[in-house]
Amino acid sequence: MTPNHRCDAIVVGAGPAGVAAAITMAKGGLKVCLIERGRLPGAKNLFGGVLYPHALAEVIPDYAERHPPFERPVTEQGYWLLSPDSVVRIMHKSVHYKTAPTGAYTALRARFDAWFAEQAVQAGVLLITKTTVTEVVRDARGRALGVATDRPEGLVQAPILVIAEGVNNLLTQSLGLAKGDLPPRYVALSVKEVLALPAAEIEARFGLAGADEGVAIDIFGDATLGLPGTAFIYTDAKAISIGVGLLLEELIVHNLKPYEILARFKAHPVVRPYLAGATVLEYGAHLIPEQGYDRMPDLVGDGVLIAGDAAAMVDAVHREGSNLAMTAGRMAGETALEAHRRGDFSAAFLRAYRTKLEESFVLKDLKQYRRMTDFLDSTPHVIGTYVDFMNEAALRYFTAQGMPKREMEGEILGLLRGRRSFFGIAHDMMKLLRGLRG
Ligand SMILES: Cc1cc2nc3c(=O)[nH]c(=O)nc-3n(C[C@H](O)[C@H](O)[C@H](O)COP(=O)(O)OP(=O)(O)OC[C@H]3O[C@@H](n4cnc5c(N)ncnc54)[C@H](O)[C@@H]3O)c2cc1C
């Protein structure tokens, strides 16, 4: 390899994982090259999205003074269980959500990623945009030496690489660390729109007192035609983020078009009034890796560390991904710093990265929910059946018909038994419990 540039470390991808890794290494004194294929960091990225600043605070302790472009603090969150004509809402509102750093904020990736990458540049990172890494260059023994890019004279050399390339993990696959292409049953496709609406209108519709309050709602049931998947509605400063996501396999098997499902969701009688008069600012789609702990790629190779979506670090149960990515990126950065100190970039030494992750919430949570995708895959009826039942049960429960309550309770039980046998219910509950307990 005759390099055109030399660095102490190369990071591929300027998403949350890559930027966290780059900042950590730059603060530790390394010369870091952060390579991003987008025109700007964030240009290619999309999420729901709710950001959890606990992970950001570990990378940039004074992040609040640097004015990150958050949209609104999340002060109310929960679930809507949507049937074709009604909804059961399970929402939680608390003043404690306003207390950073334990809170959460809505954010738009185009703005947040650009800000985060700017913090990396201020820490001394060399950010190279509009450049795609096409190959990891290795020696005869398979040790990473650097990367080739799509630029003329684009060979960059470094003894260690952090690959944070996101869900389309082509480089990770080329190193033999991922177990091939993601099968459609383990990857979700999400489509999202950002709808412009005046702040006062958002606050009136969602019952918010002002710009320092916001809502995050995850929606199950009719939003995804009862199939395994979720929809979401999050309030931004002057917009609403709305989207739906389903496992690719469900889209293929049922011949569904994601944008049609989103249009149908937006037209739902419960949802439509929140969106009235809003205009589309942005539209996008993105994949989410949901293969879980047991099918994650290997996290290290000789001279290589893998972080974030590239290694399937997504907790779909709690819609967390950006915080897992930032934490993993930071830990990859810390491990790279130790490797530099020791002059040892072997996979054997870099395994310390996996140990750090095993001791953190990242792999503990992924391990706990390791069976969740299989649970949904093996019980595709579960969301539709129980969400519709809960809506019908609520209608009976809240409607006075001059009927003795015991009879009403019997009717509700009958509604459930009409959908699922006693053994069917016990079976679903057992599987759900296993999915949640690992
Ligand atoms: C619809 C949706 C909703 C979500 N909602 C939430 C949420 O509410 N909260 C939450 O915490 N998480 C959420 N997530 C998950 C979260 O977005 C991801 O887990 C997180 O972005 C992963 O960060 P990353 O840095 O690993 O990857 P990414 O953010 O995907 O970044 C990867 C970067 O690498 C670049 N890249 C890729 N290949 C190359 C290459 N060869 N050369 C150079 N650059 C390259 C890309 O352009 C990109 O900038 C959501 C995801 C989706 C899709």
Automatic annotation (TrEMBL):
<dbReference type="InterPro" id="IPR039651">
    <property type="entry name" value="FixC-like"/>
</dbReference>
<dbReference type="Pfam" id="PF26311">
    <property type="entry name" value="ETF-QO_FixC_C"/>
</dbReference>
<dbReference type="GO" id="GO:0016491">
    <property type="term" value="F:oxidoreductase activity"/>
</dbReference>
<dbReference type="InterPro" id="IPR059103">
    <property type="entry name" value="FixC-like_C"/>
</dbReference>
<dbReference type="GO" id="GO:0071949">
    <property type="term" value="F:FAD binding"/>
</dbReference>
<keyword id="KW-0285">Flavoprotein</keyword>
<feature type="domain" description="FixC-like C-terminal">
    <location>
        <begin position="372"/>
        <end position="436"/>
    </location>
</feature>
<keyword id="KW-0560">Oxidoreductase</keyword>
<protein>
    <recommendedName>
        <fullName>Protein FixC</fullName>
    </recommendedName>
</protein>
<dbReference type="InterPro" id="IPR036188">
    <property type="entry name" value="FAD/NAD-bd_sf"/>
</dbReference>
<keyword id="KW-0274">FAD</keyword>
<dbReference type="Pfam" id="PF12831">
    <property type="entry name" value="FAD_oxidored"/>
</dbReference>
<comment type="similarity">
    <text>Belongs to the ETF-QO/FixC family.</text>
</comment>
<comment type="function">
    <text>Part of an electron transfer system.</text>
</comment>
